[in-house]
Amino acid sequence: MLYPWLKVGHLVFVIFWMAGLFMMPRFFVYHQEAPEGSEEAARWVEREARLRKIILNPSMILVWVFGLALAFTIDAWSQGWFHLKLFFVLGLSGYHGWMMAYAKKLARGERPLSGKKLRLLNEVPGIAAILIVTTVIVGRLYLS
Ligand code: HEM
């Protein structure tokens, strides 16, 4: 009976996490368009901090907690599709970590990347979502 609820928790927080991952690099682009040291830049620092603390970090932790609970429930550890999924979700978690670090750099007044590079990096969560969902649904049919 617990299993469907774990899946509900997992998927709800996947949606929140992905929403945050899509929003944050957009915030970075707008932030970098504001003049350095301006009031607008300070407002973006505040918005980024809130997105980090309220959405991104809690959602990522809960996706992992529910996902690992599901993995133990169905004993996914020996299954090929799960190894591939872990590879992709570890990559996505690394991207999350990079974003947290970049938000802190922006808050200190550093702007290491151009708007163009940030726009390109904005594609990472979309590509990761395609790879992960394909692995979970199609990969599972072939990699048991
Ligand atoms: C962060 C670590 C994650 C872990 C450890 C994890 C693990 C799992 C496990 C074990 C299942 C159960 C499969 C089943 O019972 O059929 C599952 C389901 C699922 N996961 Fe994840 N997951 C993670 C992240 C993600 C992410 C980031 C996404 C999407 C971008 C995602 C999408 C899904 C989907 C769509 C299902 C439902 C599959 C189905 O019902 O057939 N997961 N996950």
From TrEMBL:
It is an enzyme of class 1 (oxidoreductase). Heme binds at H10, K85. GO terms for biological process: protoporphyrinogen IX biosynthetic process. Its main location: membrane. Its cofactor is heme b. This is Protoporphyrinogen IX oxidase. The chain crosses the membrane at residues 6-24, 54-74, 80-103, 124-143. One of its GO terms (cellular component) is plasma membrane. It is a multi-pass membrane protein. Catalyzes the oxidation of protoporphyrinogen IX to protoporphyrin IX. Belongs to the HemJ family. Binds 1 heme b (iron(II)-protoporphyrin IX) group per subunit. Homodimer. The keyword Cell cycle does not apply. InterPro entries: HemJ-like. HAMAP family: HemJ.
